[in-house]
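RECORD TYPE: protein structure
NAME: rRNA-processing protein FYV7
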Amino acid sequence: MATKRTRSFDANPAEMRTTEAPVKKRKGFSVGPANLPDGTYRRKIQLANYKKKKNSAQKIKSDLIQKAKVKKAYAKVKAEQLVTTPRRPTYAVAEEDDGNEKDKGDDKSLQAEPATLDLHPDRQAMLDEPEPERTPKPERAQRHDGDQGRRVRKPKRSAFSKEMEIAEKRRQEAEKRREEREFKQKNREAMTRARRPDRNGKRRLGRESKVLLDRVQRMVGQA
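PREDICTED:
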């Protein structure tokens, strides 16, 4: 049986790897004028991009022209100033510095002199004049009755005065009911003790009469 023929890249895989073309990375899809169909929108985008590039180039050009103009004007002004103003000699500058130092020294000496304490003549004359007597102010006539002259103000009514009155009334009624309840309780207990018979089995009329008298007095007092 005949042997199977081997392929060239199976026999030498390293050679196959070197001879193969490198794999190119695919770029993503970009949305732009190149991928748009030919029409109005594509032409609009192309025109806008062209105008933007033109404007940026125009702006750079105008900035460069303006800077060149400013430099030229500055150089011209500087040259004119150097021509018109003569150069001062060095000894004149030194003399001026000495004069400035001298003026400063004079100013310091003037400031160091103490101020005089003499007053102005007009001021001295005003102080020497005798002081005029002040006329006493008329005192207000005192009222004999101070209470009559004052207006009696009524106390300001509180915003919750009505509610406070109702609450006070309810409190008094509750206190009255409580006292009535306590009196009835005490009177009932006293009557119970008074009705107990003595050792001989007789009623204690004196004690009962005292309890009844207290009850009558309370009823009369309430009336």
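COMMENT: The mean pLDDT is 74.
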